């Protein structure tokens, strides 16, 4: 979708930042992710720009809502730039990575508690940190070309950016919040199509991609506003949710507070097709990440505010980034791309579950 940095504004001129276009159009604060060659993978500069403008517009009465989009046809945001963080960690330099995650989590928390409507138009791939930019908003609009995932198990990390909180709070078409679904999505990294995102609650509305420009114009039209734009341009997705097919099995097997419990449930599960699905999606996962992820989600169940959940993610993420498995996972997925990681330990039974549980106490 085209972007325009020459639109007239009320009281703020367009600011053509290199990686994020930030400007006010009428009463709409617009943020356009603009790192298309990297599929809008977030780096520190992008996060700082978004956070800065959210802070500026939060208490500005002339800005009534926020619209977040991408200038790329392929991606909303493919996640965080973990290659750079890996390289720094390989040299024993963790300060920049610590700074990135601290700043990113501040942005995630602000998006989650923002006092004004936030409309995210999620077109193309959205993974990891991209969900941290979009999934906390009040209106999460997807197109037929959207697909989402939290594939952090493959890189020796955990689903973060507040998703341990969001995934167990979202309701969607299924009609209820589910810790079991959060556990399932976080550990399998299952790719979600628009129907899955709407059923799970990750998305709130659906629009045909051919109508995106009209939708954006309607959102920034002061005479219409967000609710009118949503009502006029969104529609019902035609496909059914593949994720919904496994609702019963997910609730039976993943409603647990540790990976060892989930593993036992899967071993006792009578649905071989579902068990095979889980095994297929976790066969390249870092065993430590599986354990650590469930511990974070279980700890988040007790949280009363997303800031506490982000604190758990930060603690666990800082630990995992300093373990060799993170560098190995990023290598296997993003650098050599051989999809053949050598994780240590490589057997889930050898992971010290209590050690990771104690980190969050």
From TrEMBL:
Its EC number is 3.1.2.4. NCBIfam families: PRK05617.1. Gene3D superfamilies: 2-enoyl-CoA Hydratase, Chain A, domain 1. The keyword Hydrolase applies. It comes from Corynebacterium argentoratense DSM 44202. This is 3-hydroxyisobutyryl-CoA hydrolase. GO terms for biological process: L-valine catabolic process. It catalyses: 3-hydroxy-2-methylpropanoyl-CoA + H2O = 3-hydroxy-2-methylpropanoate + CoA + H(+). The keyword Hydrolase applies. Residues 29-358 form the Enoyl-CoA hydratase/isomerase domain. One of its GO terms (molecular function) is 3-hydroxyisobutyryl-CoA hydrolase activity. InterPro entries: ClpP/crotonase-like_dom_sf, ECH_dom, HIBYL-CoA-H. Keywords: Hydrolase. It comes from the Bacteria.
């Amino acid at each position: 979708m085209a972007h325009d940095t020459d639109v007239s504004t009320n009281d703020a001129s367009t600011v053509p930042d290199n990686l994020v276009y930030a400007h006010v159009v009428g009463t709409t604060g617009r943020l356009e992710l603009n790192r298309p060659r990297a599929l809008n993978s977030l780096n520190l500069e992008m996060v700082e720009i978004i956070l800065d403008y959210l802070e500026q517009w939060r208490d500005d009465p002339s800005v009534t809502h926020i619209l977040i989009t991408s200038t790329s046809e392929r991606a909303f945001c493919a996640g965080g730039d973990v290659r750079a963080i890996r390289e720094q960690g390989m040299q024993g330099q963790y300060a920049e990575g610590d700074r990135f995650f601290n700043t990113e989590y501040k942005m995630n928390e602000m998006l989650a508690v923002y006092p004004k409507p936030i409309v995210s138009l999620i077109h193309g791939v959205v993974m990891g940190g991209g969900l941290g930019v979009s999934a906390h908003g009040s209106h999460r609009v997807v197109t037929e070309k959207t697909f989402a995932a939290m594939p952090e198990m493959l890189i020796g990390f955990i689903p973060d950016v507040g998703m341990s909180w969001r995934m167990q709070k979202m309701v969607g078409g299924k009609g209820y919040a589910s810790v079991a679904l959060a556990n399932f999505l976080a550990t399998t990294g299952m790719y979600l199509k628009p129907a899955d995102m709407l059923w799970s609650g990750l998305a709130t509305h659906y629009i045909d991609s051919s109508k995106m420009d009209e939708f954006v114009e309607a959102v920034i039209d002061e005479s219409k506003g967000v609710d009118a734009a949503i009502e006029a341009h969104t529609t019902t997705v035609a496909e059914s949710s593949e994720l919904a097919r496994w609702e019963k099995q997910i609730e039976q097997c993943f409603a647990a507070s540790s990976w060892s419990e989930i593993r036992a449930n899967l071993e006792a599960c009578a649905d071989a097709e579902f068990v095979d699905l889980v095994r297929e999606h976790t066969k390249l996962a870092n065993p430590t990440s599986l354990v650590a992820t469930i511990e974070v989600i279980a700890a988040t169940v007790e949280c009363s505010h997303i800031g506490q959940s982000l604190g758990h993610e930060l603690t666990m993420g800082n630990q995992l980034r300093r373990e060799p498995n993170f560098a190995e996972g990023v290598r296997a997925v993003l650098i050599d791309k051989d999809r053949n990681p050598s994780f240590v330990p490589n057997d889930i039974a050898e992971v010290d579950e209590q050690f990771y549980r104690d980190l969050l106490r």
